[in-house]
Amino acid sequence: MNTDLGGDPPCWAYLVDDDPTPWGSGDVGQVVAVDLGATDTRGRSGVVWSLPHGGDLDVNLVHLRPNDSIGAHVNNDVDVVISVFAGRGQVSINGTSHDLRSEVLVVVPKGARREIGAGADGITYLSIHRQRQPLGVGVCPNQSDDR
After folding, report:
1. Which residues contact 10 (CB under 8 A, 6 or more apart)?
2. Does residue 114 carry a pLDDT above 50?
3. I need a labelling partner for 132 at 20 to 30 A (CA). Which of 2, 56, 107, 145 fits?
């Protein structure tokens, strides 16, 4: 492969490399193809579809009814990608507001405080992140031990 063009080769460079090793012979996960446009979003606010577990990704289609919101919270485990599917709203990340609408993508870094609010017509968006460890029961760090 010619590397005289500078920089590191892209992640797909092995597809055009001269190496005869077959690249498609490893284990592959479950292929999922879904028409998200057929998902019923007429109910209450919340997750209306989730990617079946078993891979490295968690993907949720979230719908918020008009003017509903998800309160401020912090995710310390993984970065999250928000990709708007339909509607409008706003996301506040560490106190900075960003408009959400179709074809907008926002990356929320782990450790950032975020809250999401739907506009007057509601909002439907994908929340995409690496799979996290299962939630467990524990003691909140700010609780005292004076039981």
Report:
1. none
2. yes
3. 145
Judge whether residue 46 has pLDDT over 90. Answer: yes
Residue-wise pLDDT tens digits, 3-29: 444 556 566 555 555 555 555 555 667
Q: Which residue has the higher pLDDT, 1 or 111?
A: 111
Backbone φ and ψ for 40, nearest 5 degrees, come out as -75, 115
Per domain, the residue ranges of the chain are: 43-130
